[in-house]
Design a protein that fits this description.
The chain has 72 residues and is an all-alpha fold. The protein starts with 7 loop residues before the first helix and ends with a helix.
C-alpha cells in the first residue's frame, strides 16, 4: 500500500499503541516504533508520514488523530 490508499484504521491503531507508551521518548524512538508497528500490520507508510506522525505524538502528548495529521 502507498500513502494514497493507506488503511487509516491500521495506521490509527499503530499510532494509538505507540502514543500510549512512548510519552517522553525521543523522536527517533517514536519513529522507530511507528515503523515497527506499520511493518507488523503489513502497511507501508512514507518516511514523510512517519515523521509527521512522530512529531504529532511528541508535540501533543496525548491522543493523535492520524487522519488529521496526514491530511485525510
Amino acid at each position: 500500500m502507498t500513502d494514497t490508499n493507506i488503511d487509516l484504521e491500521a495506521v490509527q491503531a499503530v499510532v494509538d499503541r505507540v502514543t500510549s507508551w512512548q510519552d517522553g521518548a525521543t523522536e527517533g524512538t517514536v519513529e522507530d516504533e511507528l515503523r515497527k508497528g506499520f511493518s507488523e500490520v503489513g502497511i507501508e507508510v512514507s518516511e514523510e508520514s512517519v515523521t509527521k506522525l512522530a512529531d504529532a505524538i511528541q508535540d501533543r502528548h496525548g491522543a493523535v488523530d492520524a487522519a488529521e495529521v496526514l491530511g485525510r
